[in-house]
Amino acid sequence: MIVFIEMSLSLIRLSAAMLLCALGATANQTVDWWESATLYQIYPRSFMDSDGDGVGDLNGITSRLSYLKEIGATATWISPIYDSPMADMGYDVRNFTKISSIFGTMEDFDNLLAKAHELGLKVILDFVPNHSSDECEWFQKSVRREDGYDDWYVWDDGKIDPETGERSPPSNWRAVFGGSAWTWVEERQQYYLHQFLPQQVDLNYTNPAVRERMKEMMKFWLDRGVDGFRMDATNFLIEKRFDNGTFPDNPVKAGTVNTLAGTYTIDQWGSTEIIYEWRAFLDEYQKLNGGDTRAMIIEAYSPVDVLSNYISNGTNVGGQLPMNFNFVKLDENSNAETVETQVSAWMDVIWAKHKMANWVANNHDNSRLPTRMGQTKTDAMTMIIHGLPGTSVTYYGEEIGMPDYSLACTGDDCGFRDPERTPMQWDSSKNAGFSTGNSTWLAVNPNYKELNVEVQDGVTRSSLRIFKGMTALKKTAAFKAFKEKDAFSYKALSEHVFQVVRTAVGQEEYRVLANLGNQTEHFDGLSDKKMKYVLLNSYSPHSYGHKVDLSGRISLKPYEAVVLGWSKDKSCTKTKKVKHVGHVKKGRKLRHH
Ligand SMILES: *[C@@H]1O[C@H](CO)[C@@H](O)[C@H](O)[C@H]1NC(C)=O
Ligand SMILES: *[C@@H]1O[C@H](CO)[C@@H](O)[C@H](O)[C@H]1NC(C)=O
Ligand SMILES: *[C@@H]1O[C@H](CO)[C@@H](O)[C@H](O)[C@H]1NC(C)=O
Ligand SMILES: *[C@@H]1O[C@H](CO)[C@@H](O)[C@H](O)[C@H]1NC(C)=O
Ligand SMILES: *[C@@H]1O[C@H](CO)[C@@H](O)[C@H](O)[C@H]1NC(C)=O
Ligand SMILES: *[C@@H]1O[C@H](CO)[C@@H](O)[C@H](O)[C@H]1NC(C)=O
Ligand SMILES: *[C@@H]1O[C@H](CO)[C@@H](O)[C@H](O)[C@H]1NC(C)=O
Ligand SMILES: CC(=O)N[C@H]1CO[C@H](CO)[C@@H](O)[C@@H]1O
Ligand SMILES: [Ca+2]
Ligand SMILES: [Ca+2]
């Protein structure tokens, strides 16, 4: 059988050697699947269209699962696929146990899950607990004050001016997407709360019946076999309400004229308690049903001390993995020192307390990293993101360095977040291989002819190859041993050069050196080790396998980023039995028997 392995010859040798060395190095702590994962976010509308209607779907995702495996992803989280009127692209759920017909059927979902598990990939569903769609049956019943549903949402009469008799909303709260957070319903003669769009109705989380029903919704998916949930917008679950039933106004944010702080609408302690409740529910589910940890990933743009409590407050435990959005803040002015500040902001609190870390640089709500920081820094950042301890989170297309496309949508009802949501660029055929249809829901970025998976697969130092190189490294003992203090270090070596060192003590070591600046930089005596270049970006003048003595001088060209590797010679040479790996063909495809 002839297998084509798309890696350079030296990298193959090294991976084989790494693997064997890795067997010798034993990490002291066991690492659960979510702790050092390569987590890949799929935005289902934009990943792969199987039926030519120009919108991505479940069968499309299923057809590309082997790609996820191939690039080293170990788990995927999928943005909402539930039945929805799509006012907020699925973050407005009409029915929590039904698949949107846009994406397919329940059978398609079951197929996706089965295929993913066959490949050893975990599947995490985006869960949207804070609100339902206004078209959800629960809300319709609540509007009509039907039995049991009367107080499922946050209803209030509002205020009446004693002089004019005029009615106004219960408080000054503003919705995230603009306007008052309160909307009047003629039929019920009350206001309801919505922290996002008016079509995204906040559920009443002080109501035990609501809490129970949401757990039933989770159980429905757990019973189908999902491996966990990514909980959306958890910092908005509970709002402050006085015992006398009134809602306090939010104060004006310090240093602004009329921007309101979220004092009473976000980060209430009650929201953290709900997360503890969910964790207890998930743990209980695992106890009863067996299987691996059902992980809870949490989305909240909250201060680090709030996130720390999400994980645990010392007595109660919550979500395993609150997302770390610090890298979403990086922009064109960020340098290695900025990176260090952002890394420390997480590590000094969360890692220090909970021995966990994760790194998110992109998602469907933020401008993509190559656009924010500049294309020149994309691959260096890939090395940093995956070089750091813990879990890396990748937004579809990040692995090939897709930038935003400002003309993604040009009509009247374009979304402000459309530029970072354009179709995945698979190859240079029609619609970038995303869809065979006549048009796609957002325009494909015209750069797809050069920037796509197929092209990058055939180029040694492409973004995709660097991504694959890093995900392979994440599987080594050195990268898994991140709970011990001496297993890693990171540092801005200068204003522009960032370093990450990963170590399985006495066994192997890897060192990421990334120059985010436009000048050549020199360093003397970084270490007493002789190391090999094991991964290089396109700005590097070096070759794979070349040695460098770090007791002397090492230089980094503008934007050069490299990974150096070292392994304890004896233990590795003894076992270093690289099978016949054939020869490198043009296009750098390798023949392997
Ligand atoms: C495991 O712990 C022992 C003792 O604390 C230490 O000597 C060893 O280096 C550790 N192993 C790894 C792989 O870090
Ligand atoms: C959701 O959809 C399922 C399947 O179609 C249906 O059985 C259920 O009643 C619906 N639930 C709600 C709340 O609309
Ligand atoms: C939420 O539900 C609880 C329990 O049923 C109820 O006491 C409370 O008044 C409701 N809150 C609102 C704002 O309707
Ligand atoms: C309700 O209680 C709060 C807090 O005690 C108080 O500030 C507010 O004036 C009260 N409102 C009414 C209408 O009683
Ligand atoms: C953690 O939170 C729970 C729930 O609010 C509380 O009962 C417990 O006392 C808290 N523990 C600590 C150490 O603060
Ligand atoms: C694409 O356009 C052609 C020609 O107008 C039409 O016949 C075909 O049905 C369209 N296909 C789809 C999937 O809409
Ligand atoms: C090099 O980067 C610095 C910022 O670090 C910037 O001020 C300067 O304009 C850049 N020079 C070139 C030629 O891009
Ligand atoms: C990153 C993320 O998932 N953001 C979502 C947060 O929640 C709102 C409302 O559900 C969505 O609009 C965002 O896309
Ligand atoms: Ca489709
Ligand atoms: Ca809420």
From TrEMBL:
It is an enzyme of class 3 (hydrolase). It comes from the Eukaryota. Residues 41-421 form the Glycosyl hydrolase family 13 catalytic domain. InterPro entries: GH, GH13_cat_dom, Glyco_hydro_b, O16G_dom_2. Residues 1-17 form the signal peptide. The keyword Signal applies. Keywords: Signal. It catalyses: Hydrolysis of terminal, non-reducing (1->4)-linked alpha-D-glucose residues with release of alpha-D-glucose. One of its GO terms (molecular function) is alpha-1,4-glucosidase activity. SMART domains: Aamy. Pfam families: Alpha-amylase (PF00128). One of its GO terms (biological process) is carbohydrate metabolic process. Its EC number is 3.2.1.20. PANTHER family: ALPHA-AMYLASE FAMILY MEMBER, MALTASE A2-RELATED. This is alpha-glucosidase. It comes from Bactrocera dorsalis.
